[in-house]
Amino acid sequence: MPRPILATIHPQGLQHNLHRAQRAAPDARVWAVVKANAYGHGIERAFEGLRAADGFALLDLAEAERVRALGWRGPILLLEGVFESRDLELCSRLGLWHAVHCDEQIDMLAAHKTHQPHRVFLKMNSGMNRLGFPPARYRAAWARLNALPQVDEISFMTHFSDADSPRGIVHQLQVFNTTTDGLPGERSLSNSAAMLRHTAALEGTSGLRSDWVRAGILMYGSAPDFPEHSAAHWGLEPTMTLSSRVIGIQHLKAGDTVGYGSTFTAEGPLTIGVVACGYADGYPRHCSTGTPVLVDGVRTRMVGRVSMDMITVDLTPVPRAGVGTPVTLWGRAPGGTVLPIDEVAQAGGTVGYELMCAVAPRVPVVAD
Fold this sequence. Notes:
- By secondary structure, the chain is an alpha/beta fold.
- The chain contains 12 helices and 19 strands.
- It has helices at residues 11-24, 35-39, 43-50, 61-69, 87-94, 103-111, 135-146, 170-180, 192-197, 199-202, 341-347, 352-358, and strands at 6-9, 29-33, 55-58, 76-78, 97-100, 118-124, 151-158, 187-188, 212-215, 240-252, 257-258, 264-265, 270-275, 292-295, 298-303, 311-314, 326-332, 338-339, 365-367.
- It has an 8-stranded parallel beta sheet. A 6-stranded antiparallel beta barrel has the order 10-13-16-15-14-17. A two-stranded antiparallel sheet has the order 11-12.
- It is elongated and about 75 Å long.
- It starts with 5 loop residues before the first strand and ends with a strand.
- The mean pLDDT is 96.
């Protein structure tokens, strides 16, 4: 039989979380962000759960082709725009909308021969300092785009750097609103954290009005502001479960150590289970003793170091566990108990986004 590790995608969870995004921004249309192969879930597996979105936002043309191949005829947005001139030909053929964040992309459009003008999203660097035109140059970029016959409608976009932290979004929102004042066009502002944390609080007071919102990590069941708030606090459901089974049992006595480096020492008699999951499967190597794990739906802890192919877990809370007992590394256990991916990520010094995207190719993936 195959090794027992498995990643299971939950389309109903995706559907639930998309509806949660729609409730968080009831007056906006929702981009379902499916970059990075739908955050590691697989675009094809995620599509059914997300098809009620108003559009799909992603990064590269190959992903856009996959969404079109699934039968999607609605809007698709390239969040980083095009990378070379010939990309515009495929944008025309597939009917893609695309971000414009630099002069070079305007140059490409100006030289592009097309019968169908392009819908573009002009990106402002309002403080994130990644992509986008600085506010002092933004209106000039808009004027240049507006003069091109290759361009149809121009929308406005920025990205919040601190929507998940106490600093918030007001400082960027003021810059964005002041700079775009009087310019015609739709706006795309809020990411997951802004939708959940700021939409209700700032509605009608600071001009947080989006025609389009970009639902990313919230759709995949991870809280954008963990640990301040959990996924359960925001009403989100898990969309990926990483599961395995116990493949071995060891009985320790006081003074026995576990794993590479002998980083864990038993203080007394202890039964541990060996689980078929390691960093070669995408489980974070920096997780250590105390990382939460569910064994037969019961919460326990990992002990020792993560190996390439195995971890070891404390079986004290589940004395009946043995070889073959199911283990949930994150997500939903067979009995319904949930281990939030954010808790495992925190133990590994990272975020839920990375765990989703890092599941290794050798791990089988199915949709339930």
